[in-house]
């Protein structure tokens, strides 16, 4: 079946690293995505990883994929108050995107 | 490049009324999606178009929801009649998806619908 799970909340201090975790169930996923949603806005694509990769780094963002355990994580280095938002993990299955319920990241100064 | 455009941004209607949302995807994007995002949840796919044909509408409540994408560009999503549980943000997205290659989805800012 298709299911994506995320923890609901994460709170960190400014300057620390944040790690947001996600698990998915469909092993036929081709790509896995991370989107950011700020209040009242749509979803902003942050980064994505092809399912045959283990890691992808893009400036302050590092994505790790453990395909055996169907576990995806997003690490944000040097977290800033502007990173406060809801982060959605999504898997691409058969052309459509299946989203998790989102992790609300709160960054305290 | 210009992003995905949606209108209106907000809509308040009474139950049993009808409402329509409009979406203009990124130029050249073949695939268009409508998602429903209920408060506190992740977006859920309602319907997916490839050019002007429907690829997946399995989660669309067809007794009250309809969507079309005439000429393979703009799209409208309609609800008639609306129910209280339709209160949500309706997100439109598009992706390039040429020659079968998966492309990321780019989202508009959404239309927030409140049904009273």
Give me the number of helical elements of chain B.
0
Biggest chain-to-chain interface with counts: A-B, 23 and 24 residues
What is the end-to-end distance of chain B? 37 Å
Overall, the morphology of chain A is globular
Largest sheet of chain A: 6 strands, mixed
Task: Detail the poorly predicted runs of chain A.
Answer: none
Number of alpha- plus pi-helical segments of chain A? 0
Along the chain, the helix and strand elements of chain A come as EEEEEEEEEEE
Would you kindly provide a written description of the structure presented here, covering whatever features stand out?
The complex is a heterodimer of chains A (109) and B (116). Chain A is mainly beta and 109 residues long. In chain A, 0% of the residues lie in helices and 60% in strands. Chain A has strands at residues 4-6, 9-13, 18-24, 31-37, 43-50, 55-58, 61-66, 71-76, 85-93, 96-99, 103-108. In chain A, strands 2, 4, 5, 9, 10 and 11 form a 6-stranded mixed beta sheet that branches. In chain A, strands 1-3-8-7-6 form a 5-stranded antiparallel beta sheet, with no helix packed on it. In chain A, a hairpin with a 2-residue loop joins strand 6 and strand 7. Chain B is globular, with a radius of gyration of 14 Å. In chain B, strands 2, 4, 5, 6, 9, 10 and 11 form a 7-stranded mixed beta sheet that branches. A 4-stranded antiparallel beta sheet of chain B has the order 1-3-8-7, with no helix packed on it. The mean pLDDT of chain B is 93. In chain B, a hairpin with a 6-residue loop joins strand 4 (31-37) and strand 5. Chain B contains no helices and 11 strands. With 116 residues, chain B is mostly beta strands. The A-B interface holds A 4, 30-31, 33, 35, 40-45, 48, 88, 90, 92, 95-102 and B 4, 31, 33, 40-45, 48, 55-56, 91, 93, 97, 102, 104-110, 112.
Tell me briefly what this model is.
The complex is a heterodimer of chains A (109) and B (116). Chain A contains no helices and 11 strands. By secondary structure, chain A is mainly beta.
């Amino acid at each position: 079946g298709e299911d994506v799970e995320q923890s609901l909340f994460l709170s960190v201090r400014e300057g620390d690293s944040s790690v947001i975790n996600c698990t998915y169930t469909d092993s036929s996923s081709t790509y896995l995505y991370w989107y950011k949603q700020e209040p009242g806005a749509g979803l902003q694509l942050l980064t994505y990883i092809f399912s045959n990769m283990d890691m992808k780094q893009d400036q302050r963002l590092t994505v790790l994929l453990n395909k055996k355990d169907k576990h995806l994580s997003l690490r944000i280095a040097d977290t800033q108050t502007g990173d406060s938002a809801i982060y959605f993990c999504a898997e691409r299955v058969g052309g459509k995107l299946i989203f998790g319920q989102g992790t609300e990241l709160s960054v305290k100064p | 490049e210009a992003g995905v455009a949606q209108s209106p941004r907000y809509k308040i209607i009474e139950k049993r009324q009808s409402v329509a949302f409009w979406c203009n995807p990124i130029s050249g994007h073949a695939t268009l999606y409508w998602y429903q995002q209920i408060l506190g949840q992740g977006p859920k796919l309602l319907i997916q178009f490839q050019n002007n044909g429907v690829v997946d509408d399995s989660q669309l409540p067809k007794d009250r929801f309809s969507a079309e994408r005439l000429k393979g560009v703009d799209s409208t999503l309609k609800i008639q009649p609306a129910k209280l549980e339709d209160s949500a943000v309706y997100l439109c997205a598009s992706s390039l998806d040429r020659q079968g290659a998966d492309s990321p989805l780019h989202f508009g800012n959404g239309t927030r619908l409140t049904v009273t």
